[in-house]
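Students often ask why inverse folding is considered easier than folding. One informal answer: many sequences map to the same fold, so there is more than one right answer. In these notes we will look at a single instance of the problem. The structure comes first.
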């Protein structure tokens, strides 16, 4: 069983509302999520399903260097609301520079089978 510590936050007095930031493109992004980059591989998919179903987590944080995209997909496949979960990933330092960063982003999107990069 995965244990999560959830910090209750209030936004303008509204209970149960998730704290988000509005991005420059008008989309919103949760400010609190589940980091899966350092979880043991066998714990990733169950942790995603539990966090999403029991705690309403809608942000997953990982990195390309973790090489766990297939496990994120597995966890999202069993999620109650898979389309409502955002995945945040990072480019590895060896992929800095315009062309390398573009390649790294495309590679991560392909591995995550992402067909929607902008939301809304």
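Output (designed amino acids):
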């Amino acid at each position: 069983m995965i244990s999560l510590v959830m910090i209750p936050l209030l936004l303008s007095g509204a209970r149960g509302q998730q704290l988000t930031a509005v991005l420059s493109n008008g989309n919103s992004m949760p400010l609190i999520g589940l980091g899966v980059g350092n979880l043991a591989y066998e714990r990733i998919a169950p942790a995603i399903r539990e966090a999403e179903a029991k705690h309403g987590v809608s942000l997953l944080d990982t990195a390309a260097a973790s090489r766990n995209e297939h496990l994120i997909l597995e966890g999202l496949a069993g999620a109650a609301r898979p389309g409502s979960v955002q995945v945040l990933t990072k480019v590895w330092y060896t992929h800095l520079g315009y062309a390398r960063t573009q390649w790294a982003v495309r590679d991560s999107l392909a591995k995550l089978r992402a067909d929607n990069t902008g939301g809304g």
